[in-house]
């Protein structure tokens, strides 16, 4: 289960870069990839918010906005001055969280900024979809403070380094943890958000490659770069709680140390395939064992058991001739990622969990909530007529229709309209689910919304799309069958905010570390009518967005 390293996360986190570089990870009973950190990485000091009193509200929750500046370097200077001013005139509260933000009159991509920070940990990245992004419309002053009219700008993606406060425990994510996290969020400060992920199965043993993530890992970034549709924004967040032996002075000193490492020189990252050759690719399970596992699942489905569907997964260990930089790789995935979420989460002393997932778990904004169901997978056609032919075959496939109806009927009573969602390499059956929560009395609104946000997450995960149906029967079969640890793969990945939250499903993902290759994950649903060899081919298709890069195939579209 969780190790001493995860237990250490239950205390305020004081990281020494040299000691961190010597970290090695023990071997668990599952087949694992071993990440030994052989080089120095810069890590920020922080506190673990899970150890605070969740019933005691913070004394100060505030966002301070400053006039727009022309460049990242000027934004960095303005924030540094604001931090010094805060230290000279501190608020009297014994606990609090303050966000300082400066708009930038340049449109800079968040992933380019993150790449420029060169291995500063922890770090995170979350990007909304090109077509259906739900990130907030923000009122941002890009006028140097001379114009009272603030314009609306859609938040496209967020990158962050360092943690003002992180959330991790040696126990699975629970309502108690959610209350500890919610303590640092406010509807009055909508951009103070906790980004992170939760394990697919909290009851499964944690293997060595996932140890640093624990059962869950969330972070409110110390330094954050927000990419807007028009312009950008640089922000810092300071959090403190005297009860956790982490006062405002400690928080400011830690933030200053982080700020000294921030690069204000941001160059556009080239969206091209890395010159990387794949030396070895080891699948867990191998094809023979996969065939046995799928056939065994089909036998259970055909027996008198309640099982209707199970999603079986595979991990592929890739060894490359040269380094894979996880951020550079994620930038290449963005080229393939229209209508998908891109994410990266990397705690201290951990590999990077990156992904390009097409599937939304849920998005909640005030009383509105949406979710999605994806099922069935086909390749795209080489011509428009062939692509349409494949689309019609997918729409009329009895096996894929069965998988589709299972994915949606566990959560709604009325079967939604079936459609096709297309991506550069694949296409899926797709349905969107939407609803509105009942309004509550003002006195109970905040409490009910707090409970409901946790209930949404716990009720929707794991969904039939990544686990099966019924959920518990499918989960047990997965635990009996799979010989690797899914970790955060197929788990919720996203962010919590004061009045809004959004989570994707952590599929089409990989665990990556420079110099040590990657573990690439994919899964497929097994229902009546499934064929083991065809399901294996579907796995290959799903991981092709990663492996095609390694095989030096140029993506379908290159950004200029």
Automatic annotation (TrEMBL):
It is found in: Plastid, Chloroplast. Its cofactor is Mg(2+). Keywords: Chloroplast, Isomerase, Magnesium, Plant defense, Plastid, Transit peptide. It catalyses: chorismate = isochorismate. GO terms for molecular function: isochorismate synthase activity. Its EC number is 5.4.4.2. It is an enzyme of class 5 (isomerase). It comes from the Eukaryota. Residues 290-542 form the Chorismate-utilising enzyme C-terminal domain. It holds the Pfam family Chorismate_bind. InterPro entries: ADC_synthase, Chorismate_C, IsoChor_synthase, MenF-like. One of its GO terms (cellular component) is chloroplast. Pathway: Siderophore biosynthesis; salicylate biosynthesis. GO terms for biological process: defense response; phylloquinone biosynthetic process. Belongs to the isochorismate synthase family. Isochorismate synthase involved in the synthesis of salicylic acid (SA) required for both local and systemic acquired resistance (LAR and SAR) while SA synthesized through the phenylalanine ammonium lyase (PAL) pathway seems to potentiate plant cell death. Also involved in phylloquinone (vitamin K1) synthesis. Has no isochorismate pyruvate lyase (IPL) activity. NCBIfam families: isochor_syn. PANTHER family: ISOCHORISMATE SYNTHASE 2, CHLOROPLASTIC, PTHR47253. This is isochorismate synthase. The lineage of its organism: Eukaryota, Viridiplantae, Streptophyta, Embryophyta, Tracheophyta.
């Amino acid at each position: 289960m969780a190790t001493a390293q995860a237990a250490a996360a239950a205390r305020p986190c004081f990281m020494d870069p040299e000691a961190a570089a010597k970290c090695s990870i023990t071997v668990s009973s599952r087949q694992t990839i071993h990440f030994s950190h052989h080089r120095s990485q810069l890590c920020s000091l922080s506190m673990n918010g899970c150890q605070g009193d969740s019933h005691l509200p913070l004394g100060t929750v505030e966002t301070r906005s400053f006039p727009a500046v022309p460049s990242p370097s000027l934004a960095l200077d303005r924030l540094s001055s604001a931090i010094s001013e805060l230290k000279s005139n501190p608020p009297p509260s014994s606990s609090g969280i303050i966000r300082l933000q400066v708009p930038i009159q340049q449109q800079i991509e968040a992933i380019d900024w993150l790449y420029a920070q060169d291995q500063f940990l922890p770090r995170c990245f979350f990007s909304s979809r090109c077509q259906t992004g739900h990130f907030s419309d923000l009122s941002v002053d890009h006028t140097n403070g001379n114009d009272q009219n603030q314009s609306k700008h859609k938040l496209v993606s967020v990158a962050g380094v360092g943690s003002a406060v992180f959330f991790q425990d040696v126990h699975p994510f629970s309502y108690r943890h959610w209350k500890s996290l919610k303590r640092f969020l406010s509807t009055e400060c909508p951009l103070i958000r906790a980004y992170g992920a939760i394990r697919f199965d909290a009851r499964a043993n944690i293997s060595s490659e996932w140890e640093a993530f624990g059962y869950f890992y969330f972070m409110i970034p110390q330094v954050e770069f927000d990419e807007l549709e028009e312009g950008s924004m640089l922000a810092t967040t300071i959090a403190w709680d005297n009860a956790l032996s982490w006062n405002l002075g400690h928080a400011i000193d830690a933030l200053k140390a982080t700020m000294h490492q921030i690069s204000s020189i941001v160059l556009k990252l080239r969206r091209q395939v890395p010159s990387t050759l794949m030396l070895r690719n080891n699948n867990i399970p191998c094809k023979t064992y996969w065939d046995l596992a799928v056939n065994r699942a089909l036998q259970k489905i055909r027996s008198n058991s309640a099982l209707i569907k199970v999603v079986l997964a595979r991990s592929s260990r890739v060894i490359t001739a040269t380094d894979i930089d996880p951020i550079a790789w994620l930038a290449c995935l963005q080229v393939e990622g229209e209508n998908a979420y891109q994410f990266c989460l990397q705690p201290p002393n951990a590999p990077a969990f990156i992904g390009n997932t097409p599937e939304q778990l849920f998005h909640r904004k005030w009383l509105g909530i949406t979710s999605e169901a994806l099922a069935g997978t086909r390749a795209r056609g080489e011509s428009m007529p062939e692509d349409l032919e494949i689309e019609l075959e997918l729409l009329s496939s009895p096996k894929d229709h069965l998988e589709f109806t299972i994915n949606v009927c566990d959560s709604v009573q009325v079967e939604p309209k079936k459609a096709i969602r297309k991506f550069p390499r694949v296409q899926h059956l797709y349905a969107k689910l939407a609803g509105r929560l009942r309004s509550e009395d003002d006195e109970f609104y905040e409490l009910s919304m707090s409970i409901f946000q946790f209930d949404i997450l716990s009720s929707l995960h794991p969904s039939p799309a990544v686990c099966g149906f019924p959920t518990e029967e499918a989960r047990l079969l997965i635990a009996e069958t799979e010989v690797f640890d899914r970790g955060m793969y197929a788990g919720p990945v996203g962010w919590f905010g004061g009045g809004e939250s959004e989570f994707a499903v952590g599929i089409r993902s990989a665990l990556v570390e420079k110099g040590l290759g990657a573990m690439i994950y994919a899964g497929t649903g097994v229902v009546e009518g499934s064929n083991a060899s065809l399901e294996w081919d579907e796995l290959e298709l799903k991981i092709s967005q990663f492996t095609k890069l390694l095989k030096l195939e140029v993506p379908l579209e290159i950004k200029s």
